[in-house]
Amino acid sequence: MQTVIIDTDIAIDYLRGMAYAKTFVDPLLDSNNAFISVLSVLETVEELRWKQRHEVDDNFNLREGEVIAHSKDKSNIYEQVVNLKGKKLYIEYTAKIPEDLAVVL
User: Fold this and answer.
1) Helices and strands (H and E) in the chain: how many
2) N or C: which end of the chain has fewer CB within 10 A?
3) Across the strands, what pairs with 4?
4) What pTM value is reported for the model?
C-alpha cells in the first residue's frame, strides 16, 4: 500500500467521525501508511478549538444547532439520542431544576 499524507480537512472530518473519512483513513492507519504534517496537525487543532469556542457562549448557551427532540418525557429524548452515534450532543434542561439534583462535569 502506498504511503499517504493526510490532508487537514480529511483529518478534521476523521476526528468528527465522518464515515467517508473513516473509510479512507482507517485502513491507512491499520497498515501504518498514513502520515500528517506538523502544519496539518496545527491547523486541525486550531480548527477544532475555534469550533468549540464558537459553539457555546460564555454561559455555555448553545449558539447554533438543530433541535432533534423536545419532550417532557426523558425516554422520548433518549430514543432520539440513540440515533446520534458519533455526533456532538447538547441537552438543555428547561424545567425547574430540582434542589436535590447534582450535576457532575
Assistant:
1) 4, 2
2) C
3) 34
4) 0.43
Q: Is the pLDDT higher at 61 or at 32?
A: 32
Among 66, 87, 91, CA closest to 16:
87
Domain locations along the chain: 4-55
Q: Rounded to whole angstroms, how far apart are CA atoms 12 and 60?
A: 23
What does the pLDDT read at residue 80?
77
Cα–Cα distance for residue pair 16/5, rounded to 1 Å: 18
Question: pLDDT band for position 53 (50/70/90)?
Answer: low
Contacts by 16-22, CB closer than 8 A, 24 or more apart: 17/86, 17/87
